[in-house]
Amino acid sequence: MKKSKTTHRMSKIMMVFFTLLFVVLFGRFFYIQSTGEIKGVTLEDWAEKKRTSSYSIDANRGKIVDRNGMTLAYDRPTYSIFAIVNEEYSKGLDEPKHVVDPSKTAEKLAPILNMDQSRISSIIQQGKEQDRFQVEFGSNGRYLSQEKRDKIKSLNLPGINFRAEAKRYYPNGMFASHVVGFAQRKGEDGKITGILGIENQMDKKLTEKNGSISFQRDKYNQKLLNPEEVIQEPKDGDTIQLTLDQKIQTFLEDAMTHVEKQYEPKKMMAVVMDPKTGEVLALSNRPSFDPNNRSNIQNWYNDVVAYPYEPGSTMKIFTVAAAMDAGVYDGKETYDSGSYKIEEITRPIRDHYRPGWGEITYNEGIQRSSNVAAAKLVWEKLGTDKFLSYLRDFDFDQKTGIDLPGEKAGNILYNWPIEKLTTTYGQGTTVTPMQLMKAATAVANDGKMMKPYVISKVLDPNSNETIQKTKPEVVGEPIDASTAKSVRELLGKVVTGEHGTGKNYKLNDFSVAGKTGTAQIPDPDGPGYLSGSDEDYIFSFLGMAPKEDPELMMYVSVKQPKLKGNELGSEPVSYIFKTVIENSLHYLNIQPDKQNKKMDVQPKTIEDLSGKSVKQAKSQIQKKGLKPVVLGEGSTIQKTLPAKGKQVFQNERVMLLTKGDVKMPDMSSWSLRDVLKFSDLMKLKLDYMGSGFVYKQSIQPGSVVRKSDYLTVELSPPGEQGQTPEIPSDENERSMQEQQEEKEDEET
């Protein structure tokens, strides 16, 4: 048959098409062979990647610890539970790897996860119906402790698995929460990030760097003989060591919690500092929060550094210091108290006791917290320009520079004559508690003003070697050493003097220099100040002890406490101050002031009593005017506390340890110092509240004492056993009529 022209034409077209296709494919193969690339990807790299397995090695976020190494924040290993519901995962296996019985699984898990059995069963069943591979159980199934994980694993439930993940944990709960802050998972990668406090301030140092491991494998995922393994070591975040002392911070937290429950104040702020270095030993605010449970944070601000307010009469410390330093203060000079009027103002400055105390000396005026005394000192003696210069020397016009986030500075209100006068006694001008504390270090530290700080060191997480260290820094000398000493003497009279407003702030074993404050609160709804009740103030105290050479300095303020009957606003303030300072000084082994001890002022030296009979040892101790406490059932002395060569004062107890079981002594009327000796000797875990002498103990007398037993004692001043210690009055100690008159004439 004769072929058609169409057939010839189609044959030629097909030949041309296949020829072109062959050329293209051959060219492509030739290109790939010669270059070894496809779409810019090197085949050798691609092959290596396909036969290489890589795994991440987790690192931990850095720890935050106190000055003694006590952990305040760390990454705690936790576990999330999930259930495999796909039956295909168990195909060909002897034991099932998926959830076989949803009902039974739910029944076992419900009490451990604190979930309804029906809810767990429903989640598993829905996962099966939706053909999902696995399901999780929401927030109840996340961050499980190792104890819960082990409990669930012991049930041997098929299909139940766990995924390990770190959670930031704060073992002390509500403890210096605004200082330590908190961190949480954030962003798409779920990385733990600092949100508040030191967690935020030092986030870069705390952040970890995960490592990795990679190796070459065959198609069965087995390592090759030469796997070319590459390991990148993980790096934990640095350890941040704070200046906070866990014991002193605990004293503070306990005292503030007690006051919070009893008085329900709107706000509280407190800080304890070493005035010689600027180290912050304790800091707390109320309202506070537990960083482990952040569902209801009422106050995100660290008020000690971020809440400027009119401080009230604590400002008189610096008014007097300026006048003394300038050489214009004569404490024996007299003036007329009650009110003070100059031409430049329309209404007079008044004392809190409106009639005044007649003609008194300036020393007495400061003891009585006279506004007139402070105003006259600046207007007539020092001069307002000179006083402003001193305020700036004390750095009241700037932030303290403390290493905490969110710090604010107050404002020196000093434009008009009335503002220049009210600033002398802490009204109009605003400061933060930390500004007051920084300025007061000059008074406590012989004129040298120290920069406050809370970060002591940055440590390597593995070697614990110091990477970075904060050194005490003198940031000014607004007054000289002799002025500082004179101011402390005068402030000591505020506590011990006949007319002192803070006389009941006196401690049992240590002298105190300090100043009370009763600050008015600006009315948020209009001009002027709140004046609805005797509670509408911020009550405060700034004190240092011992007075001659202060080792600790503390500021406490309580805003609008709920008072009952004849209670004064200063009562919650003084309870916090006395409890914390007295206990802290004993804890730091600061020697009591000799003038405060009703005993022989000459210290006694402990002799070597090891090997002597109990009778001999008791006799020698008693001859020195000391009190022996025999511990154990043996006949000879093995150890004493204080140890040989140590010095003690008359009437102190000396622990004499013998062989045998030690029975708990009756600690009634023991001093805290004696309790500390006993707990140290017996290696007890001690907690104590209050100040003064023991009236209650958790371990009953006569009980056998074991190492690591937990002992709690409660203390109160002499004559008040079994009662809350009496709290001192403040400068607001005046009649209702006098207070009402002051409210009516208050300067706005």
TrEMBL record:
Disordered, as annotated region: 710-748
Membrane keyword on record: yes
GO BP term, pick one: cell wall organization
Domain PASTA residue range list: 600-661, 662-717
Protein name: serine-type D-Ala-D-Ala carboxypeptidase
Pfam families: PASTA (PF03793), PBP_dimer (PF03717), Transpeptidase (PF00905)
Species of the source: Pontibacillus marinus BH030004 = DSM 16465
EC number, UniProt record: 3.4.16.4
Any one cellular-component term (Gene Ontology): plasma membrane
Ranges annotated as biased composition (Acidic residues): 739-748
